[in-house]
Amino acid sequence: RNTAWALACVVFTGHESKIQMNSSQAPHKQSALEKLANKLMLIILAIQVVLCLGGAVAGAIYQGGDAVGEKYLGVEESSAAELLLYGVTKFFTFLIIFGNFIPISLIVTLGVVKLLQGFFIGADEDMSCGGTKAAVRTSDLNEELGQIEYIFSDKTGTLTRNRMEFRKCSIWGNSYGMGIAEVRRRVLKKMGLPIPADPVPPPGAKKTPHVNLVDSQLETVLADEDTEEYRHCLRFFLHLAINHTVMCEASNIPDIPVAYSASSPDEGALVYAASHFGFTFSSRDSTGLYVNVRGREIKVIVEADFEFTSARKCSSIACR
Residues with Cβ < 8 Å from 258, sequence gap 6 or more? Predict the structure, then answer.
C-alpha cells in the first residue's frame, strides 16, 4: 500500500504453496440414521460370517467322519487337503444360502425416501422466506433437521456495519460532545425510556467522515490559545494525530485533504477526529510522520513505537 514498486521472492509454488497445502476435500457427512444402518449391516455381516464358518466346519467334520459309513451318500475317505477344500466350498455355499440376511434394498429405500423428502422441503410454503423457498442441496441430512437444538454463529464484521464515530471525548476532566453514545442509547431502549434526538450541527459546520461531535464549547476552547484548556486540548489531539498506524491515501471527498486507511475502524475514527479539529496527519516516511497543526506543518520523529496489544490495552509512541 502506498508503494510505487516492490521486490518479491517466491519461496513456494504449485502444490507447495500455502493455499494448496491447506486445501482439502470436504468431508462426507452422514446422518445418525445412516450411521446406525451401516453399523447394523456390519453386525449382520459378522453374524453371517460366523454362521457360514460354523456350517463349513461342521460339514467338513461330518464329511470326514460319519458320512463315510453312510452307504446311500457314497462318500469315500478323504485326505486333509480334500476336507479343507470341501470346507471352503461349503463356506461359500452357506454364504449364498444366508445371503438374504443383509437387506440389500435398505440403502436404496433410504435414498428414495430422502429424495422424496427433498422435494417436499422445496415445495413447503412454511419453509420459505420472502418468496424464496428452501433449496435442498444435499438430501443426506434430511432427518437431522428435526433434531437441531442450538445454532451457533460467530460475531464478525460481516454481520454488522462495524462503523465507528467520534461523538464524545473527555479532556482535562471536561466532557465534550452533546447527545448520547450508542451504548447509552441501547440501555434506554432496553429500559423502555425515551431516547433523546441527536444534536444537529450548526449551519455551515465542518463535516468529516466518522466524526459526529457537536459541541460549541470545544470550538471556543480551541479558538483561545492562551488558556490552560487549550494546551490540554492541544496535547490530546496531537496525541491522536501521532500515536497510530494509519496510512494516508488520496481523498475523493471535497474539503477532505487526505483519506486514512486504518487496520481498525476505531483507530481511523480517532485520526479523523484529530483532523476535524485542525490536527491533520498528512504523510509518513521511514523516520516519522508529518502533522499539520492548525495550519503549521511539523515533523515528528518516531524513536520507538509500541503497538496495541490485548495485554496492554493501549498503544504508546516515543517521539520528538
Answer: 248, 249, 250, 251, 275, 280, 281, 282
Spacing of C-alpha 51 from chain mean position: 52
Task: Tell me the sheet residues that pair with 316.
Answer: 306
Work out the burial of residue 149: count CB atoms within 10 Å of its CB; fewer than 13 is exposed, 13-18 middle, 19 or more buried. Answer: exposed
How far is CA 164 from its chain centroid?
22
Residues 85, 123 contacting (CB under 8 angstroms): no
pLDDT per residue over 153-190, tens digit each?
776 655 556 778 898 999 989 999 988 877 888 888 88
Which residues are catalytic, by number? 154
Asked if residues 273 and 244 have their Cβ atoms less than 8 Å apart, the reply is: no
Closest by Cα among 253, 250, 238 to 290: 238
Give strand pairing partners of 250: 258
Compute the Cα dihedral for 62, 64, 69, 75 and give only its sign: positive
Please report, for residues 4, 12, 13, 75, the alpha-carbon distance to residue 9 in angstroms, rounded to integers and kept in the order given: 17, 9, 11, 83
pTM score, whole prediction: 0.53
pLDDT tens digit sequence for 46-55: 999 999 999 8
Rg over alpha carbons for the chain, rounded to the nearest Å, is 39
Residues in the chain: 320
Q: Mark 182-199 as b/e (b = at least 16 C-beta within 10 Å).
A: eeeeeeeeeeeeeeeeee
